[in-house]
Write a structure and sequence with these properties.
Strand order of the largest sheet: 1-2-6-7
Helix content: 40-55%
Oligomer: single chain
Distance between the termini: 28 Å
Strand content: 15-25%
Structural class: alpha+beta
Shape: elongated
C-alpha cells in the first residue's frame, strides 16, 4: 500500500464531514473525545469571526454553528458581486463578478476560480469536551 493510500485510510477513518462539526456532538462526552472533524468555521480564526459570533449570539441567544457562518459568508459574497455588476443584474453578470472576488469572510478567505471556491477547510479535534482548531 502506498503512503497516499495509507493517508486516505487514516483520513477517512478519523475525519467526519462538516455536518459532524456541531455542538450536539459534544453531548456524547468521553465517547467523542479525540475525534477529528472537518469544518468551515471557528471563532478563533479571526477578529471578524469573533465579531460575527458576538452579533449572532446577541440576536439569536445561541452560538452559531458551521452552517450559519457559511450562509453569512455566502450572502455577503453574493451581495458584493451584485454591487459590482454594471447595469442589469443577471445570473451571468453575477457569476462574472464572483470570479473576480477575493472575500475575507468569517470562515476565512475565499477566492473563486470558475466560480469554485478555493477556501481552505479547517480541521478540529474534540479535546476536553470542546472543539479545538488543529494547526
Amino acid at each position: 500500500m502506498s503512503r497516499n493510500q495509507i493517508m486516505d485510510v487514516v483520513i477517512s477513518s478519523y475525519l467526519e464531514e462538516t455536518g459532524a462539526y456541531a455542538p450536539a456532538l459534544l453531548d456524547y462526552g468521553k465517547a467523542v473525545e479525540g475525534i477529528y472533524v472537518q469544518g468551515e468555521f471557528d471563532v478563533n480564526v479571526s477578529d471578524k469571526a469573533k465579531k460575527f459570533v458576538e452579533a449572532f449570539e446577541a440576536e439569536y441567544d445561541y452560538e452559531p454553528v458551521n452552517w450559519a457562518a457559511s450562509a453569512y459568508d455566502s450572502a455577503c459574497i453574493l451581495i458584493e458581486a451584485m454591487k459590482n455588476v454594471d447595469g442589469e443584474i443577471t445570473r451571468d453578470k453575477i457569476n462574472e463578478q464572483i470570479k473576480e472576488i477575493t472575500y475575507e469572510g468569517v470562515c476565512g478567505t475565499y477566492h473563486f476560480d470558475n466560480c469554485d471556491s478555493s477556501k481552505a477547510e479547517l480541521i478540529l479535534q474534540i479535546k476536553d469536551g470542546a472543539f479545538t482548531l488543529v494547526e
